[in-house]
Write a structure and sequence with these properties.
Layout: E1 5-13, H1 16-25, E2 29-38, E3 53-60, E4 63-64, E5 66-71, E6 83-88, E7 92-95, H2 100-108, E8 114-117, E9 124-128, E10 136-144, H3 147-158, E11 161-165, E12 171-176, E13 185-191, E14 204-212, H4 215-224, E15 228-229, E16 234-238, E17 241-249, E18 255-266
Parallel strand pairs: 1-5, 4-10, 6-9, 10-13, 14-18
Antiparallel strand pairs: 1-14, 2-3, 3-5, 6-10, 7-8, 8-9, 11-12, 12-13, 15-17, 16-17, 17-18
Helix pairs in contact: 3-4
């Protein structure tokens, strides 16, 4: 098995210190908070700016997927990342305007959805407010102009399976089933926007992190499904360990982090 699970989704932010306090107050756990981490030279192909350091905050909500808030220390680009998340059980509604994302999320996840922000932050999300749900990321949403090409990549290259589809082809829901239930998550592909390549320091949600125990096999699967591996493998200090990772792009240009769990070593 090339990929073994979905680890987390990444968002660009401007102040991890404030967010750490706010998220803790909102009842979310902090998995780690790394400050002033040196940006590896090998990361340059996925960065629009030229910051030498960044701050990383990995958040563990009460339910659902982990998410990482990254302050790149030079500000975000003018572009928005192609990812979004569906957040259940809390948050602040920003707009009742119907969009392609809220319409698709309402249908695919069978819940009323609106535009909003993650509790304790200004990070945008698609919000499904329900008093019965523990706060958390219920799924990741990816906007692409060519949904069929994206489906082909994420199923053939990464190992998701299709579980639902709009009759008009406007959205497709995929699910990754992992041996570890906490790494099993859903992705909603929505026909919206374009297939432009994004950078890690764009605004909003920019990257999905996938776990692997065989980096070479995972890279080969990505390439075989029409994606590209855009950085060499390098190491990042996090939570007292050195994590091996690299970045790739899907067939429609979206960023993916490949995180090698097998090769994680202590500092």
């Amino acid at each position: 098995m090339s990929f073994i699970g979905v680890d987390h989704v990444c968002a660009t932010v401007s102040d991890t210190e404030m967010l750490a306090r706010n998220f803790a107050a909102a009842g979310m756990g902090i998995a780690f908070h790394e400050r002033d981490v040196e940006v590896a030279d090998l990361k340059a192909p996925v960065m629009g700016g030229s910051s030498s350091i960044h701050h990383m905050l990995l958040v563990r909500p009460q339910s659902g997927m982990l998410f990482e808030a990254i302050d790149h220390c030079t500000g975000a680009s003018d572009r928005a990342g192609p990812y979004q998340v569906l957040f259940r059980g809390g948050g602040e509604t920003g707009s009742n305007e119907t969009t392609a994302l809220t319409t698709a999320a309402s249908a695919a996840f069978e819940t009323p959805a609106s535009s909003g922000v993650i509790p304790g932050s200004d990070i945008p999300c698609v919000l499904a407010v329900s008093a019965d749900d523990a706060p958390g990321v219920a799924g990741v949403i990816l906007s692409r102009a060519d949904v069929d090409a994206a489906v082909s990549f994420w199923t053939d290259g990464v190992g998701f399976r299709e579980t639902a589809r709009d009759a008009d082809g406007k959205w497709v829901k995929l699910t990754f089933t992992s041996p570890m239930p906490s790494w099993s998550h859903s992705m909603l592909l929505v026909q919206d926007g374009d297939n432009q390549e994004n950078q890690l320091d764009d605004q909003g949600w920019t990257c999905l992190s996938m776990l692997t125990t065989d980096m070479d096999a995972a890279c080969n699967k990505v390439i075989g499904a029409g994606g590209t591996v855009v950085t060499e493998v390098y190491e990042v200090p996090a939570d007292g360990k050195m994590l091996r990772l690299c970045f790739a792009r899907g067939r429609t240009g979206e960023l993916i982090e490949l995180l090698d769990m097998r090769s994680t070593v202590s500092k």
